[in-house]
Amino acid sequence: MTFLIEDNTQEVRKIIADSLINTDFQPIMDFSARSYLGYEALIRGPASSPLHRPDQLFAAARHAGLARELEHACREASLSDFAHHRLPGKLFLNVTPGCLLDERLMNGETRQLLTDLGIAANRVVIELTENEQIIDMPGIQDALLHYRGQGFQIAIDDLGEGFANLRMWSEVRPEYVKIDKHFVHGIADDRIKYHFARAMQDLAEICNASLVAEGVERAEDFACIRDMGISCVQGYFIALPEA
After folding, report:
1. Residue 137 has what pLDDT?
2. What is the pTM for the complete model shown?
């Protein structure tokens, strides 16, 4: 087991050093505009690597103490690939809350990359993921104020997965909120899920946020969400992630 962990550590270092990160993009449909709002960048390791799956890749990076370095490399790869493919609309970029305080994000390095790539800051949505505990909420709020001042927008991921992101919604006031796929899959046939989503929709209207229903895989759920008036949808029923 120790040898496997050591092998993975070396593999993470190689993936970061040699820029071997791949980006898939999954579109987000905007019902009101009848078009794509934008795309979420989804990270993959090299196809031949034991760390091809993102959960394995990020777990290995955390174990090796390279989580911030990997996030930085993923951010660069996502922005570069988004520009290379000339994708329209917004780019939803997954960022852990702690990474908002990373010097490489705060010192303008990412902003310079956007300038070099010709991507306006108002086309980038910083999507906060709930895979680490927030220990400095005031610092995070100051950082978000800084990024909003530059034109970035904010989203929170997987609403309903845990209590922490409900608190995050109340304190961060994001422009976009993604409903966890648990409440989306089967919503057409489940009154409880339907009313949970309606409650989220009512809250979003009060907070002036747009909801994105994630994990839409069935025509019935797609129609239900559309008829509820939820702003946007994302999932296999719309399109699979593609490179």
Report:
1. 76
2. 0.90
